[in-house]
Each structure stands twice: as C-alpha cells, then as structure tokens.
Amino acid sequence: MTVKLGVNIDHIATLRQARGGNFPDPVEAAENCLALGAEYIVLHIRRDRRHMQETDLERLTKKFRKHIHLEMANTREMVELALRYKPASVCIVPEYPNELTTSGGLKMDLKTISALKKTTARLQKDGIDVSLFINPAPYDVRKAKSAGAKIVELCTKDYSEAKTEHIRKKFLEDISMSTILAKELGLRVHSGHGLNFENVSDIAAQNGMECLNIGFSIISRAVFVGLPQALLEMRKAVSFYAR
Ligand code: PXP
Hints:
Elements: E1 4-8, H1 10-19, H2 26-35, E2 40-44, H3 54-64, E3 68-72, H4 76-85, E4 89-92, H5 110-125, E5 129-134, H6 138-146, E6 151-155, H7 157-161, H8 165-184, E7 188-192, H9 200-204, E8 209-214, H10 216-225, H11 227-238
Parallel strand pairs: 1-2, 1-8, 2-3, 3-4, 4-5, 5-6, 6-7, 7-8
Helix pairs in contact: 6-8, 10-11
The protein binds pyridoxine-5'-phosphate (PXP).
Pyridoxine-5'-phosphate binds next to strand 8 and helix 10.
C-alpha cells in the first residue's frame, strides 16, 4: 500500500501575506498538488491568521472538500469554522502564541482530553474525520483513542530534529511502537512535522502508516525547482520502500 501524501500549503499563504495581495494563491497551489498526485491538501488556520485565512478555507473546501485536511486548535471559534466549511478531516493541534510552528503534540491531561472528547464527537457527528496530533508515546495513543478520535497524527518533530543517529533511531522506535499500538486499537495513523527528503523514508516504511503531512520542505524545495519537481521528488522519497 502506498503511503498517502498530504501537502501542507500554509507557506504559499505566508508568501502571499508578505505583500498583502492575492497571490500566490493557495487554491492554485492545491490544484497543482492534487493534479500531481497529492491525496490531501493541509492548511492550518491559526488564531493570529499569520498565513491561512477563513476565505482560503472557504475557497478550498468549495473546490476540493474531499481532499481538505484542516489543522486547528480546539477553540470554539475554530470548531465553528470547521462546522461551517466541513473539510474532509480536521487535525486538532496545540497552539501557543509566538511559536514559529506547532511545537509538539497535544498535552493529554484530563482537562484537555475532556475538551477533545466534546469536539471530536461534535465534528464527527457532522461527518468530519478527527485526527489528534500527539507525541509518539503509548499513553498518548491510548488517551487519543479514549477521546474518540479515528486518526492519530504522530508528531515527528523530535525524530526530525535529532542530532545524532543514535537519538534518531530512538525516536524512530517510539514512532514504530506507537504506530503498532494505534493500529491494534483500531486507529488510523498519520505522521508529520519536520519531515524532509532525507528523513521521510523511514517513517513512510512503518507498517500501517497511512498518510504523511509535509509542508515546509516541499515548499522550500519548490522555490528552486518548482512545485511539480518538488512533489515528484517527495513522492519518490515517500515510496522508497515499496510495501
Ligand atoms: N502536521 C502538523 C500537525 C503540523 O502542525 C505541521 C506544521 O504545520 C505539519 C504536519 C507539517 O510540518 P512541516 O511544515 O514541518 O512539514
């Protein structure tokens, strides 16, 4: 089974916001990515609206609803947005002011889990699949299941930022164990954060890995070689291990 690719196009919007106009257009980027073999388009609407805007979600869901995966914090405002535009799926992520990007998985404490339960039930009632962005640890996987999610997205930040091969292998092991446990619990498994052309194949090779959500490395590479070539290269890297 080939691992699916979700392309995070937030940084197309980052570039657009730099001049406050209407290009480069995330809808055009989504059209390109889907035509070139991406299965999902990922966007994160942040509270500070630093890149993606509500109108982006509106336009993207209007054209490509079945392929739209929205990352969002678990706030009333964001739940209302998701219910209004109904993307195919939502990934709930922690969000903190002034962070450069998502800084890790959800903290699975009792208060967070109780809030996640409500949101997960509400979104799934309207046909939106819910994924929880969690750290790759058995406790977190079990808590994600208890919160009612159908999907977990395992955070690959620590794996991606590992400074030595020994540490990288340790974090890879965490991802392997969490993938196995999640599958045993009947969860679908995604992964993402910091994945690039060099480090992606070991994650893609995990048995049961369904989808990888990747943004920064693809869009950065596209600056030099164009989006089609960058996507082709990522597709190749993701499919390095034919399973
Ligand atoms: N998955 C989640 C939950 C994220 O928050 C992000 C960053 O927006 C990504 C995947 C993609 O990370 P990157 O841009 O480093 O590939």
